[in-house]
């Protein structure tokens, strides 16, 4: 392994506009082994070739942008001795003139940004996480190798920072923000709340207290499963929502349980000897409609209150251009992982 974080020079080189491309600032071009052409970076290659992607670790040659000499990958030009970058990793073939606090993680198998001292590699999740998350996040085996549940793009080598909600499922920070802006607060994979929903639950409590149910439905109870605490409970039905008796969350769904009767009361039709089978079918339709309407009511109420967006969970990104500012801002919080996949 050979990682060179700063070539021999007293001061970092000044970045010139002509150095590199929109993705990276560097003093060399990569020679793609797949098509034998020189490109400023792997992203430029992939944008120019829709039918295949470059394998950066197979790159063996570079071209100096100053003297145009084609040569074996190295930290500086063999002819004019121009350093190819202020940070050079010959494993990932990453050359960068800009300081993003890059470091190579052997466990991830790629370079990350944000500073080695600020991150540690979680063996279970198989990704670099902020030190603040050590022993405080929910681990899921190889979760970093899943795709984002919103955009379905890769998470482990993504150039976009990833967010870790309380359930532990990774999601791109931009996708997380988009869900929040559109009023979706549950994890797309498991349905658990992705942020503190206490203000919404309190407002729903107030709505329920001021909205009494008709007499015939006041004793109707349902079995629900809480998507936040994963416990079942028997609760009274209300059109606003079905509240978990254990944690107070309204993020619930109706479940079938033979030990949990749906209703503790009787209707007039039942007492008058009506057709029970037909009535049970009607009640089934009613309670299903109830659950769906309760969820819709919760979504409607959420648009009227401010739910605090949790920006404390971001992972370290693979080295990219535009992510460094977002990464730096997230390090002061606790939970975002900037996962920028470097060149």
Automatic annotation (TrEMBL):
Indicate, by first and last residue, each region the UniProt record lists as having compositional bias (Polar residues).
Answer: 315-331
Please indicate if the UniProt record lists Electron transport as a keyword.
no
Provide GO CC annotations from the record. Answer: nucleus
**Phosphoprotein among keywords:** no
Q: Which PROSITE patterns match?
A: ZF_CHY, ZF_CTCHY, ZF_RING_2
InterPro entries for the chain: RCHY1_zinc-ribbon, Znf_CHY, Znf_CHY_sf, Znf_CTCHY, Znf_CTCHY_sf, Znf_RING, Znf_RING/FYVE/PHD
A GO BP annotation: ubiquitin-dependent protein catabolic process
What terms describe the molecular function in GO for this protein?
ubiquitin protein ligase activity; zinc ion binding
- The CHY-type domain extends over 14-82
Q: Which segments show compositional bias classed as Acidic residues?
A: 267-283, 333-343
Q: Where is this region: Disordered?
A: 258-283, 315-343
One Pfam family named in its UniProt record:
zf-RING_2
Protein keywords: Metal-binding, Zinc, Zinc-finger
List the SUPFAM superfamilies: CHY zinc finger-like, RING/U-box, Zinc hairpin stack
The segment(s) forming the CTCHY-type domain are 84-147
- Give every RING-type domain span: 148-190
Q: What is this protein called?
A: RING finger and CHY zinc finger domain-containing protein 1
- The organism encoding this protein is Cacopsylla melanoneura
């Amino acid at each position: 392994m050979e990682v060179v974080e700063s070539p021999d020079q007293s001061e970092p080189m000044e970045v010139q506009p002509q150095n590199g491309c929109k993705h990276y600032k560097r003093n060399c071009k990569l020679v793609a082994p797949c098509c034998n052409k020189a490109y400023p970076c792997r992203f430029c290659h992939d944008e120019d070739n829709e039918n295949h992607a470059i394998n950066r670790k197979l790159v063996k040659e570079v071209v100096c942008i100053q003297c145009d000499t084609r040569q074996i990958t190295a930290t500086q030009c063999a002819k004019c001795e121009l350093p190819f970058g202020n940070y050079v990793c010959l494993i990932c073939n990453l050359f960068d003139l800009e300081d993003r606090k890059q470091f190579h993680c052997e466990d991830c198998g790629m370079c990350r940004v944000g500073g080695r001292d600020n991150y540690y590699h979680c063996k279970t999740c198989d990704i670099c996480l902020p030190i603040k998350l050590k022993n405080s996040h929910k681990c899921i085996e190889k979760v970093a190798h899943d795709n984002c549940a919103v955009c379905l793009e890769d998470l482990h080598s993504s150039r976009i920072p990833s967010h870790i909600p309380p359930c532990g499922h990774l999601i791109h920070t931009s996708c997380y923000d988009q869900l929040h802006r559109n009023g979706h607060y549950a994890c797309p994979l498991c349905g658990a709340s992705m942020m503190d929903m206490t203000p919404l639950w309190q407002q729903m409590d107030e709505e329920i207290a001021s909205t009494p149910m008709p007499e015939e439905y006041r004793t109707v109870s349902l079995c629900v499963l809480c998507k936040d605490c994963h416990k079942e409970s028997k609760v009274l039905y209300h059109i606003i929502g079905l509240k978990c008796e254990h944690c107070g969350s309204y993020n619930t769904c109706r479940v079938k349980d033979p030990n949990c009767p749906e209703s503790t009361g009787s209707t007039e039709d039942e007492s008058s000897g009506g057709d029970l089978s037909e009535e049970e079918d009607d009640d089934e339709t009613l309670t299903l409609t109830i659950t769906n309407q309760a969820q819709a009511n919760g979504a409607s109420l959420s648009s009227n209150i401010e739910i605090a967006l949790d920006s404390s969970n971001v992972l370290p990104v693979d080295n990219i251009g535009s992510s460094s500012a977002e990464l730096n801002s997230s390090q002061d919080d606790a939970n975002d992982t900037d996962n920028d996949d470097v060149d």
